[in-house]
Amino acid sequence: MAYGEHLYLVETGPAIDPALLASSEALVGKCLSDFFDGDEDALFDLGCAFSTGSRGAICDLVEAHKWFNLAASRGHEEAQHCRAEVAEEMTAREIVEAQRRARAFLAEHDTSRRVA
């Protein structure tokens, strides 16, 4: 499921600027390409971008938690700490959604790692 579809399902605020949404999707695409080419920091970089609303990403703690969770599942220690910090700002429902998205990513990309 594309990032825009995730936002559509959970966004309750004002409409999101289509240019910003396209920028976020482009960032995800680039980082995933880097990840599949062997860049182990790419998932962590996505978590950082979504947690701060930087590098063209929309500030979205659910997405940030998802990417930090995926990076942490691959042994990225800093991602574990960042995931915990982001979780402090989230509701239980948001954390469950982030975990669901991480599991969906793993299922879609047939990876052997498990996430919390």
How does this model look, in words?
The protein has 116 residues and is an all-alpha fold. The protein has one domain. It has 6 helices and no strands. α2 (18-36) runs antiparallel to α3 (42-52) and α4 (61-73) packs across α6.
Task: Summarize the structure in short.
With 116 residues, the protein is mostly helical. The protein has helices at residues 3-10, 18-36, 42-52, 61-73, 77-87, 92-108. The chain has one domain (18-108).
| Alpha-beta classification | mainly alpha
Task: Please summarize the sheet with the most strands.
Answer: none
Q: List low-pLDDT spans.
A: 5-11
Q: Any idea what the radius of gyration is? A: 13 Å
The total tally of domains equals 1
How confident overall, as mean pLDDT?
Answer: 85
Shape: globular
Q: Total strand count, please? A: 0
User: Helix count, per DSSP?
Assistant: 6
**Element-by-element helix/strand order:** HHHHHH
- Report, as a whole number of angstroms, the end-to-end distance: 20 Å
Helix proportion: 55-70%
Residue share in β-strands:
under 5%
